[in-house]
Design a protein that fits this description.
Blueprint: H1 3-11, H2 13-21, H3 25-36, H4 38-50
Helix pairs in contact: 1-2, 1-4, 2-3, 2-4, 3-4
Length: 51
């Protein structure tokens, strides 16, 4: 992961997922988790972008 991806994963998790995977179910899951709570969104963004 690049430094930009790490920073975006912390600050704006859906944006980091969008930049890596585009529009799709992964982005929708990231948005939902971020709306439920910031921490689940961050964890999901790190998990998805580290694969």
């Amino acid at each position: 992961m690049s430094l930009l991806t790490i920073i975006l994963s912390i600050l704006l998790p859906p944006v980091a997922v969008f930049l890596k995977h585009g529009i799709g179910t992964t982005l929708l899951v990231s948005i939902l988790l971020t709306l439920l709570g910031w921490l689940p969104g961050v964890i999901h963004a790190f998990y998805v972008n580290s694969k």
